[in-house]
Specification:
382 residues; alpha/beta; 15 helices; 15% strand
Amino acid sequence: MVFTYVLAVITIGWVFITIYLLINTHRIGYLKDQPMTQHQPSLAIIIAMRNEETEVEKALSSICHINYYHYRIIAINDRSTDQTGAILDKLVLQHPQISAIHVRELPPHWLGKNHALYQGYLHATEEWLLFTDADVVFEQNAILKAIAYAQRQQLDHLAVLPHIESRSNILNSILETFSVMLILKLRLWEVPSARSKASVGIGAFNLVRKTAYEKAGTHTAIRLRPDDDLKLGEHLKQSGSKQDVLYGEDAITLEWYSSVRQFVNGLMKNTFSVSDYNTAKAITAALATFIFFCTPVLIGLLTGSLLNASLLAIVIIAQWALFAFKAGHPNRWWHFLMIPVAGAIITYIIVRSTFITLKQGGIYWRDSFYPLKELKSDKFEK
Protein backbone atom coordinates (compact mmCIF):
# COMPACT_ATOMS: atom_id res chain seq x y z
CA MET A 1 0.00 0.00 0.00
CA VAL A 2 2.89 2.35 0.73
CA PHE A 3 4.23 1.78 -2.78
CA THR A 4 0.81 2.60 -4.20
CA TYR A 5 0.66 5.91 -2.33
CA VAL A 6 4.18 6.78 -3.51
CA LEU A 7 3.35 5.91 -7.11
CA ALA A 8 0.09 7.86 -6.91
CA VAL A 9 1.95 10.98 -5.78
CA ILE A 10 4.55 10.53 -8.54
CA THR A 11 1.78 10.02 -11.11
CA ILE A 12 0.09 13.26 -10.08
CA GLY A 13 3.49 14.94 -10.26
CA TRP A 14 4.12 13.70 -13.80
CA VAL A 15 0.69 14.78 -15.02
CA PHE A 16 1.15 18.22 -13.47
CA ILE A 17 4.68 18.68 -14.81
CA THR A 18 3.67 17.53 -18.28
CA ILE A 19 0.88 20.11 -18.45
CA TYR A 20 3.11 22.74 -16.82
CA LEU A 21 5.96 22.24 -19.30
CA LEU A 22 3.75 21.87 -22.37
CA ILE A 23 2.22 25.26 -21.61
CA ASN A 24 5.38 27.08 -20.61
CA THR A 25 7.95 25.72 -23.07
CA HIS A 26 5.83 27.16 -25.87
CA ARG A 27 6.32 30.62 -24.36
CA ILE A 28 9.96 30.51 -25.47
CA GLY A 29 10.66 31.71 -29.00
CA TYR A 30 12.92 30.35 -31.74
CA LEU A 31 15.97 32.19 -32.99
CA LYS A 32 15.31 31.00 -36.56
CA ASP A 33 11.97 32.84 -36.60
CA GLN A 34 13.37 36.23 -35.62
CA PRO A 35 13.58 39.01 -38.24
CA MET A 36 16.96 40.49 -39.06
CA THR A 37 18.06 44.10 -38.74
CA GLN A 38 20.08 46.60 -40.72
CA HIS A 39 21.69 48.06 -37.61
CA GLN A 40 24.74 46.03 -36.64
CA PRO A 41 26.54 47.18 -33.49
CA SER A 42 30.14 46.14 -32.98
CA LEU A 43 30.51 42.58 -31.74
CA ALA A 44 33.40 40.57 -30.30
CA ILE A 45 32.95 36.78 -30.53
CA ILE A 46 35.07 35.32 -27.74
CA ILE A 47 36.04 31.66 -27.90
CA ALA A 48 38.21 29.80 -25.40
CA MET A 49 39.78 26.61 -26.69
CA ARG A 50 42.03 23.91 -25.33
CA ASN A 51 43.04 20.85 -27.33
CA GLU A 52 40.28 21.42 -29.91
CA GLU A 53 42.26 20.44 -33.00
CA THR A 54 39.45 18.29 -34.43
CA GLU A 55 36.78 21.00 -34.17
CA VAL A 56 38.42 24.43 -34.22
CA GLU A 57 38.79 24.84 -37.99
CA LYS A 58 35.20 23.83 -38.73
CA ALA A 59 33.78 26.02 -36.00
CA LEU A 60 35.82 29.14 -36.74
CA SER A 61 35.23 28.78 -40.47
CA SER A 62 31.47 28.80 -39.88
CA ILE A 63 31.77 32.00 -37.83
CA CYS A 64 33.98 33.62 -40.45
CA HIS A 65 31.18 33.24 -42.98
CA ILE A 66 28.32 34.64 -40.92
CA ASN A 67 26.12 37.41 -42.30
CA TYR A 68 27.51 40.20 -40.14
CA TYR A 69 30.06 42.83 -41.06
CA HIS A 70 30.97 44.65 -37.84
CA TYR A 71 32.47 41.84 -35.81
CA ARG A 72 35.74 40.37 -34.67
CA ILE A 73 36.62 36.89 -33.42
CA ILE A 74 38.89 36.74 -30.38
CA ALA A 75 40.13 33.16 -30.07
CA ILE A 76 42.04 32.25 -26.94
CA ASN A 77 44.28 29.19 -27.02
CA ASP A 78 44.35 28.08 -23.39
CA ARG A 79 47.59 26.15 -22.98
CA SER A 80 46.76 23.53 -25.62
CA THR A 81 49.10 20.57 -25.96
CA ASP A 82 47.86 19.46 -29.38
CA GLN A 83 47.81 21.35 -32.71
CA THR A 84 45.11 23.85 -31.70
CA GLY A 85 47.57 26.75 -31.49
CA ALA A 86 49.13 25.99 -34.88
CA ILE A 87 45.71 25.64 -36.55
CA LEU A 88 44.61 28.90 -34.97
CA ASP A 89 47.69 30.75 -36.25
CA LYS A 90 46.99 29.40 -39.74
CA LEU A 91 43.38 30.59 -39.58
CA VAL A 92 44.51 34.07 -38.49
CA LEU A 93 46.47 34.38 -41.74
CA GLN A 94 43.46 33.24 -43.78
CA HIS A 95 40.81 35.30 -41.99
CA PRO A 96 41.69 38.87 -40.93
CA GLN A 97 38.67 39.07 -38.61
CA ILE A 98 40.32 36.55 -36.25
CA SER A 99 42.58 37.73 -33.43
CA ALA A 100 44.51 35.06 -31.53
CA ILE A 101 45.61 35.09 -27.91
CA HIS A 102 47.89 32.35 -26.60
CA VAL A 103 47.72 31.75 -22.84
CA ARG A 104 50.96 30.15 -21.63
CA GLU A 105 50.38 30.13 -17.86
CA LEU A 106 47.35 30.05 -15.60
CA PRO A 107 47.41 32.45 -12.62
CA PRO A 108 46.30 31.23 -9.17
CA HIS A 109 42.61 31.10 -8.24
CA TRP A 110 41.36 30.74 -11.81
CA LEU A 111 39.81 27.93 -13.82
CA GLY A 112 41.41 27.84 -17.23
CA LYS A 113 38.31 28.48 -19.35
CA ASN A 114 37.09 31.33 -17.15
CA HIS A 115 40.51 32.97 -17.28
CA ALA A 116 40.68 32.54 -21.06
CA LEU A 117 37.26 34.14 -21.57
CA TYR A 118 38.26 37.01 -19.32
CA GLN A 119 41.41 37.55 -21.39
CA GLY A 120 39.20 37.75 -24.46
CA TYR A 121 37.12 40.46 -22.79
CA LEU A 122 40.28 42.43 -21.89
CA HIS A 123 41.16 42.56 -25.60
CA ALA A 124 37.64 43.53 -26.69
CA THR A 125 36.56 47.08 -27.45
CA GLU A 126 33.23 46.18 -29.04
CA GLU A 127 29.76 47.05 -27.72
CA TRP A 128 28.55 43.45 -27.54
CA LEU A 129 30.34 40.26 -26.47
CA LEU A 130 29.38 36.76 -27.56
CA PHE A 131 30.88 34.04 -25.38
CA THR A 132 30.74 30.73 -27.23
CA ASP A 133 32.58 27.42 -27.61
CA ALA A 134 34.98 26.11 -30.21
CA ASP A 135 32.70 23.27 -31.30
CA VAL A 136 29.62 25.38 -32.06
CA VAL A 137 28.47 25.76 -35.68
CA PHE A 138 26.38 28.81 -36.63
CA GLU A 139 23.83 29.17 -39.40
CA GLN A 140 24.79 32.16 -41.54
CA ASN A 141 22.14 34.56 -40.18
CA ALA A 142 22.01 33.25 -36.58
CA ILE A 143 24.07 35.99 -34.95
CA LEU A 144 22.41 38.77 -36.95
CA LYS A 145 19.00 37.52 -35.80
CA ALA A 146 20.21 37.28 -32.20
CA ILE A 147 21.51 40.85 -32.24
CA ALA A 148 18.28 42.06 -33.83
CA TYR A 149 16.20 40.32 -31.16
CA ALA A 150 18.36 41.65 -28.33
CA GLN A 151 18.03 45.21 -29.64
CA ARG A 152 14.30 44.92 -30.28
CA GLN A 153 13.66 43.58 -26.78
CA GLN A 154 16.18 46.01 -25.24
CA LEU A 155 18.11 43.13 -23.69
CA ASP A 156 21.44 43.11 -21.92
CA HIS A 157 21.86 39.35 -22.22
CA LEU A 158 20.50 36.77 -24.62
CA ALA A 159 21.15 33.05 -24.20
CA VAL A 160 20.33 30.57 -26.95
CA LEU A 161 19.77 26.85 -26.42
CA PRO A 162 21.72 25.08 -29.18
CA HIS A 163 20.51 22.11 -31.13
CA ILE A 164 22.58 19.33 -29.56
CA GLU A 165 22.96 16.22 -31.69
CA SER A 166 25.21 13.26 -30.89
CA ARG A 167 26.36 10.48 -33.17
CA SER A 168 25.09 8.15 -30.42
CA ASN A 169 21.33 7.52 -30.64
CA ILE A 170 21.28 6.31 -27.04
CA LEU A 171 22.92 9.53 -25.86
CA ASN A 172 20.44 11.58 -27.90
CA SER A 173 17.58 9.94 -26.01
CA ILE A 174 19.27 10.57 -22.66
CA LEU A 175 19.90 14.20 -23.59
CA GLU A 176 16.16 14.68 -24.13
CA THR A 177 15.48 13.78 -20.50
CA PHE A 178 18.44 15.86 -19.37
CA SER A 179 17.05 18.89 -21.23
CA VAL A 180 13.67 18.44 -19.52
CA MET A 181 15.43 18.43 -16.14
CA LEU A 182 17.41 21.54 -17.05
CA ILE A 183 14.43 23.49 -18.37
CA LEU A 184 12.38 22.57 -15.31
CA LYS A 185 15.16 23.56 -12.92
CA LEU A 186 15.89 26.89 -14.62
CA ARG A 187 12.26 27.81 -15.40
CA LEU A 188 13.43 29.36 -18.65
CA TRP A 189 10.08 31.01 -19.47
CA GLU A 190 10.45 33.18 -16.37
CA VAL A 191 13.89 34.48 -17.33
CA PRO A 192 12.60 37.69 -19.02
CA SER A 193 10.64 38.69 -15.92
CA ALA A 194 12.37 41.14 -13.61
CA ARG A 195 10.15 39.88 -10.78
CA SER A 196 11.50 36.36 -11.09
CA LYS A 197 14.86 35.12 -9.81
CA ALA A 198 15.05 32.70 -12.76
CA SER A 199 18.21 33.21 -14.79
CA VAL A 200 20.03 31.40 -17.57
CA GLY A 201 23.45 31.14 -19.11
CA ILE A 202 24.39 28.89 -22.03
CA GLY A 203 28.06 28.19 -22.73
CA ALA A 204 27.40 27.77 -26.44
CA PHE A 205 25.74 31.19 -26.78
CA ASN A 206 25.91 33.95 -24.20
CA LEU A 207 25.39 37.29 -25.97
CA VAL A 208 26.09 40.08 -23.48
CA ARG A 209 26.20 43.83 -23.65
CA LYS A 210 29.73 44.74 -22.55
CA THR A 211 28.60 47.32 -20.00
CA ALA A 212 26.23 44.77 -18.43
CA TYR A 213 29.03 42.19 -18.27
CA GLU A 214 31.24 44.70 -16.46
CA LYS A 215 28.44 45.64 -14.07
CA ALA A 216 27.99 41.94 -13.21
CA GLY A 217 31.65 41.67 -12.23
CA THR A 218 32.99 39.94 -15.39
CA HIS A 219 34.45 36.44 -15.08
CA THR A 220 36.50 37.56 -12.10
CA ALA A 221 33.34 37.12 -10.01
CA ILE A 222 33.03 33.46 -11.08
CA ARG A 223 36.68 32.62 -11.65
CA LEU A 224 36.47 29.26 -9.85
CA ARG A 225 33.03 28.14 -11.03
CA PRO A 226 32.98 25.06 -13.30
CA ASP A 227 29.36 26.00 -14.13
CA ASP A 228 30.55 29.39 -15.35
CA ASP A 229 27.83 29.81 -17.98
CA LEU A 230 24.98 29.36 -15.51
CA LYS A 231 26.70 31.52 -12.92
CA LEU A 232 27.36 34.30 -15.44
CA GLY A 233 23.65 34.37 -16.22
CA GLU A 234 22.85 34.43 -12.51
CA HIS A 235 25.21 37.35 -11.84
CA LEU A 236 23.84 39.26 -14.81
CA LYS A 237 20.26 38.84 -13.58
CA GLN A 238 21.20 39.81 -10.03
CA SER A 239 22.95 42.96 -11.25
CA GLY A 240 19.77 44.13 -12.98
CA SER A 241 20.43 43.05 -16.55
CA LYS A 242 17.45 42.27 -18.76
CA GLN A 243 17.66 38.67 -19.96
CA ASP A 244 15.91 36.37 -22.38
CA VAL A 245 16.39 32.95 -23.95
CA LEU A 246 15.53 31.42 -27.33
CA TYR A 247 15.62 27.96 -28.86
CA GLY A 248 18.47 27.59 -31.35
CA GLU A 249 16.92 24.87 -33.51
CA ASP A 250 18.19 25.12 -37.14
CA ALA A 251 20.43 28.04 -36.18
CA ILE A 252 23.06 26.91 -33.66
CA THR A 253 24.30 23.33 -33.45
CA LEU A 254 26.98 21.34 -31.71
CA GLU A 255 27.87 17.83 -30.70
CA TRP A 256 28.27 18.15 -26.93
CA TYR A 257 29.47 14.59 -26.36
CA SER A 258 29.82 11.68 -28.77
CA SER A 259 29.04 8.84 -26.33
CA VAL A 260 27.31 8.11 -23.05
CA ARG A 261 30.70 7.52 -21.44
CA GLN A 262 31.91 10.98 -22.49
CA PHE A 263 28.68 12.51 -21.21
CA VAL A 264 29.07 10.87 -17.79
CA ASN A 265 32.77 11.74 -17.49
CA GLY A 266 32.18 15.28 -18.72
CA LEU A 267 29.50 16.06 -16.15
CA MET A 268 31.31 14.27 -13.34
CA LYS A 269 33.73 17.11 -12.65
CA ASN A 270 31.22 19.95 -12.39
CA THR A 271 27.90 18.49 -11.22
CA PHE A 272 28.69 18.91 -7.51
CA SER A 273 29.26 22.62 -8.11
CA VAL A 274 25.61 23.01 -9.19
CA SER A 275 24.72 22.15 -5.57
CA ASP A 276 27.27 24.76 -4.40
CA TYR A 277 29.36 21.89 -2.99
CA ASN A 278 26.64 21.23 -0.41
CA THR A 279 26.48 17.48 0.26
CA ALA A 280 22.96 17.50 1.67
CA LYS A 281 21.67 19.47 -1.31
CA ALA A 282 23.39 17.11 -3.76
CA ILE A 283 22.06 13.95 -2.10
CA THR A 284 18.57 15.44 -1.97
CA ALA A 285 18.79 16.17 -5.70
CA ALA A 286 19.98 12.61 -6.38
CA LEU A 287 17.14 11.06 -4.35
CA ALA A 288 14.52 13.29 -5.96
CA THR A 289 15.82 12.43 -9.44
CA PHE A 290 15.81 8.70 -8.76
CA ILE A 291 12.37 8.66 -7.11
CA PHE A 292 10.68 10.78 -9.76
CA PHE A 293 12.31 9.35 -12.89
CA CYS A 294 13.11 5.75 -11.99
CA THR A 295 10.75 4.38 -9.33
CA PRO A 296 7.47 4.44 -11.34
CA VAL A 297 8.72 1.57 -13.50
CA LEU A 298 10.12 -0.31 -10.53
CA ILE A 299 6.90 -0.04 -8.52
CA GLY A 300 4.51 -0.53 -11.42
CA LEU A 301 6.18 -3.63 -12.83
CA LEU A 302 7.59 -5.34 -9.76
CA THR A 303 4.71 -5.11 -7.24
CA GLY A 304 2.24 -7.14 -9.30
CA SER A 305 -0.63 -4.78 -8.51
CA LEU A 306 -3.19 -3.91 -11.16
CA LEU A 307 -3.66 -0.47 -9.59
CA ASN A 308 0.08 0.20 -9.67
CA ALA A 309 0.26 -0.97 -13.27
CA SER A 310 -2.58 1.43 -14.13
CA LEU A 311 -0.80 4.32 -12.41
CA LEU A 312 2.38 3.44 -14.32
CA ALA A 313 0.39 3.54 -17.57
CA ILE A 314 -0.74 7.10 -16.75
CA VAL A 315 2.88 8.10 -16.06
CA ILE A 316 4.00 6.63 -19.40
CA ILE A 317 1.22 8.44 -21.27
CA ALA A 318 2.19 11.73 -19.59
CA GLN A 319 5.86 11.19 -20.47
CA TRP A 320 4.99 10.38 -24.07
CA ALA A 321 2.83 13.51 -24.34
CA LEU A 322 5.59 15.66 -22.87
CA PHE A 323 8.21 14.43 -25.33
CA ALA A 324 5.81 14.45 -28.29
CA PHE A 325 4.43 17.97 -27.88
CA LYS A 326 6.92 20.08 -25.92
CA ALA A 327 8.60 22.96 -27.74
CA GLY A 328 12.26 22.90 -28.68
CA HIS A 329 14.29 20.28 -30.47
CA PRO A 330 12.03 17.53 -31.93
CA ASN A 331 12.91 14.00 -30.84
CA ARG A 332 12.21 10.45 -31.91
CA TRP A 333 9.11 8.73 -30.60
CA TRP A 334 10.98 6.17 -28.49
CA HIS A 335 13.08 8.69 -26.54
CA PHE A 336 10.52 8.90 -23.74
CA LEU A 337 11.08 5.19 -23.06
CA MET A 338 14.61 6.03 -21.94
CA ILE A 339 13.48 8.34 -19.12
CA PRO A 340 14.14 5.75 -16.35
CA VAL A 341 17.59 5.00 -17.79
CA ALA A 342 18.42 8.69 -18.06
CA GLY A 343 17.19 9.26 -14.52
CA ALA A 344 19.43 6.48 -13.23
CA ILE A 345 22.45 7.88 -15.10
CA ILE A 346 21.88 11.42 -13.80
CA THR A 347 21.45 10.06 -10.27
CA TYR A 348 24.73 8.19 -10.62
CA ILE A 349 26.50 11.31 -11.90
CA ILE A 350 25.29 13.42 -8.95
CA VAL A 351 26.26 10.82 -6.35
CA ARG A 352 29.56 9.91 -7.98
CA SER A 353 30.56 13.55 -8.55
CA THR A 354 29.82 14.36 -4.92
CA PHE A 355 31.73 11.32 -3.66
CA ILE A 356 34.81 11.87 -5.84
CA THR A 357 35.03 15.58 -5.04
CA LEU A 358 34.77 14.94 -1.30
CA LYS A 359 37.19 12.00 -1.42
CA GLN A 360 39.95 13.85 -3.25
CA GLY A 361 39.16 17.15 -1.51
CA GLY A 362 38.59 19.11 -4.71
CA ILE A 363 38.40 18.79 -8.49
CA TYR A 364 40.83 18.37 -11.38
CA TRP A 365 40.12 20.81 -14.20
CA ARG A 366 42.28 21.00 -17.30
CA ASP A 367 45.21 19.28 -15.56
CA SER A 368 45.07 21.57 -12.49
CA PHE A 369 43.83 20.62 -9.02
CA TYR A 370 41.54 22.96 -7.07
CA PRO A 371 40.97 22.26 -3.34
CA LEU A 372 37.36 22.20 -2.19
CA LYS A 373 38.05 24.92 0.36
CA GLU A 374 39.23 27.23 -2.40
CA LEU A 375 36.27 26.39 -4.64
CA LYS A 376 33.84 27.31 -1.87
CA SER A 377 35.57 30.60 -1.13
CA ASP A 378 34.72 33.86 -2.84
CA LYS A 379 37.76 35.70 -1.49
CA PHE A 380 40.98 35.73 -3.49
CA GLU A 381 44.39 37.23 -3.13
CA LYS A 382 45.04 40.03 -5.53
